């Protein structure tokens, strides 16, 4: 397949060399898509900044850090929060660079599962199948978890504003459901609206970061001394400080998920073979730097360590102690807004994965889910399937927070395992790999090795116990949730799927699929 890509690109350039640059880019994008066997159904409205914005918003350093900071205070403390952030950010950048190289070669909405099917030498259907379902479940879990976090922080704000308010599990589930439905409505309309909202989200994050950091630096009378970043705390219940500190690395790993969003938006991005990989790597790099600044601001503003660490929402307690209740409530609105933007972008990425997976016949009712609205040029039915699946994951929280946590805990593990598969297959392919315009050259293999190794290590960490003593409430259900997903995918594969799903399909040669273009 990869050998066919240069031909249509060359024909487009030769036949239309006099066209304006924007038109030429569109021709090259379409030629690349046609060479991979797909007609153009989605509108290319995403520029380079828009593609970057989708991943930067999903990573969302404000949402990620505020959601997991308390866990880090008890699993390693400032030493792991700061230096763990730096180390893990570098490792994730290796993962992103390796993924970006694959994205440049296969710029489709199918992203991970499509490239897995094309890079595998044998059993292409199976590689594609498992990658697609891990990606799907991981993204649905991400939408549910982000909505749940936003609902939790909304209730924290309400409780600060009206002290008589008492959050309940039922209220959290209802607010989460409302958030996800509203995000579904936003994704129902044109991709141009989604692009505009994602541009706004980038500035919301950056301006919000500046406001929060400036307030934490300028307002408090006292800050922790410079040496405080070496402070170590292990309140996990485990006697091993090394183990407790390793668990603290998960704070950064939890934050850096979803950067495959740039990959999934390839078919809606101009000059996708370059802009999609740039979107992946830039979103990680910029998040690493801005996240470190926010992390340092929070760490140096901690007052009484034990009381903050034991608070229901430690970052909120830091804001209250350092800035006062009124300012803390105002800044909490910035955090809530960031979480809402994060969920919106995550749902967009999830929808495109469903669209592409269904286009290749890998989902029940595929004919429905890969259809595109003739009015908005968006996969509206896929949007609402993603909404329904996310709501299904949220629903167990009505009865048990532990059950909900067990379901969404597969979010990070599922996503990173899906990230690892095409990178691993690209390594196995060696010199046979046909790189796109954006590539790592001779560094491709070492970067890929580091990426796969880190994913393996971090995935093990995510499945280990995270608190002691181990009880029904503190047990880490991620291995069980992941095993359940893999079991269902395996039974489904061997009973029916392997007979009709052979991996990414081709709708014909470049000229044939060009005639099928809807726009």
Which ranges are low-confidence, i.e. pLDDT below 50, for 5 or more consecutive residues? Answer: 1-27
* Main β-sheet, spatial strand arrangement: 1-2
Q: Please tell me the total number of domains.
A: 1
Number of E-type strands: 2
Task: Give the mean pLDDT.
Answer: 87
Output the structural class.
mainly alpha
- Judging by the overall fold, what is the CATH architecture? Up-down Bundle
Rg computed from alpha carbons, rounded to a whole number of angstroms: 23 Å
**CATH topology heading:** Amino acid/polyamine transporter I
Shape: globular
Main beta sheet: strand number and arrangement? 2 strands, antiparallel
Number of helices: 23
CATH class placement? Mainly Alpha
How much strand content do the residues show?
Answer: under 5%
Percent range of helical residues = over 70%
* Run of helices and strands: HHHHEHHHHHEHHHHHHHHHHHHHH
The CATH homologous superfamily corresponds to Amino acid/polyamine transporter I
- Rounded to the nearest angstrom, the distance between the terminal CA atoms is 24 Å
């Amino acid at each position: 397949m990869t050998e066919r890509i240069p031909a249509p690109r060359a024909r487009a350039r030769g036949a239309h060399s006099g066209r304006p640059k924007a038109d030429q880019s569109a021709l090259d994008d379409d030629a690349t898509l046609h060479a991979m066997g797909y007609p153009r159904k989605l509108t290319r409205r995403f520029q380079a900044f828009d593609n970057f914005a989708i991943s930067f918003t999903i990573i969302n350093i404000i949402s990620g850090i505020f959601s997991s900071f308390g866990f880090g205070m008890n699993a390693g403390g400032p030493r792991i929060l700061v230096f763990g952030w730096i180390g893990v950010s570098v490792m994730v950048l290796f993962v992103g660079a390796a993924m970006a190289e694959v994205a440049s070669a296969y710029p489709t909405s199918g992203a991970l599962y499509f490239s897995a099917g094309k890079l595998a030498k044998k059993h292409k259907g199976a590689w594609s199948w498992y990658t697609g379902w891990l990606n799907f479940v991981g993204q649905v879990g991400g939408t549910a978890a982000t909505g749940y976090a936003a609902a939790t922080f909304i209730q924290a704000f309400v409780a600060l504003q009206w002290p008589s308010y008492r959050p309940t599990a039922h209220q959290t589930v209802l607010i989460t459901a409302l958030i996800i439905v509203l995000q579904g409505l936003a994704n129902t309309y044109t991709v141009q609206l989604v692009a505009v909202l994602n541009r706004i989200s980038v500035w919301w994050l950056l301006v919000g970061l500046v406001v929060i950091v400036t307030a934490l630096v300028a307002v408090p009378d006292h800050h922790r001394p410079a040496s405080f970043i070496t402070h170590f705390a292990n309140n996990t219940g485990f006697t091993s400080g090394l183990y407790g500190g390793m668990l603290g690395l998960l704070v950064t790993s939890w934050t850096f998920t979803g950067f495959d969003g740039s990959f999934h938006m390839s078919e809606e991005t101009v000059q996708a073979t370059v802009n999609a990989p740039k979107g992946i790597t830039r979103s990680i790099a910029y998040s690493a730097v801005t996240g470190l600044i926010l992390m340092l601001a929070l760490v140096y503003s901690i007052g009484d360590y034990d009381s903050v660490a034991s608070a229901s929402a430690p970052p909120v307690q830091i804001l209250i102690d350092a800035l006062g209740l009124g300012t803390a409530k105002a800044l909490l609105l910035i955090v809530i807004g960031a979480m809402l933007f994060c969920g919106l972008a995550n749902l967009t990425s999830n929808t495109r994965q469903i669209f592409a997976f269904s286009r290749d016949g890998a989902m029940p009712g595929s004919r429905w889910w890969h259809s595109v609205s003739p009015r908005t040029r968006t996969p509206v039915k896929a949007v609402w399937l993603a909404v329904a699946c996310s709501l299904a994951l949220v629903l167990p929280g009505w009865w048990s927070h532990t059950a909900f946590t067990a379901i969404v805990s597969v979010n990070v593990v599922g996503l990173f395992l899906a990230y690892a598969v095409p990178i691993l297959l690209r390594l196995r392919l060696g010199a046979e790999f046909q790189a796109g315009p954006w590539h790592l050259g001779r560094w491709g293999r070492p970067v890929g090795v580091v990426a796969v190794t880190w994913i393996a290590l971090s995935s093990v960490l995510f499945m280990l116990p995270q608190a002691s003593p181990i009880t029904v409430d503190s047990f880490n259900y991620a291995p069980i949730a992941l095993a359940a997903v893999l079991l269902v995918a395996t039974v489904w594969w061997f009973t029916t799927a392997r007979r009709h799903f052979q991996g990414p399909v081709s709708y014909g040669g470049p000229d044939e699929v060009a005639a099928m273009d809807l726009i």
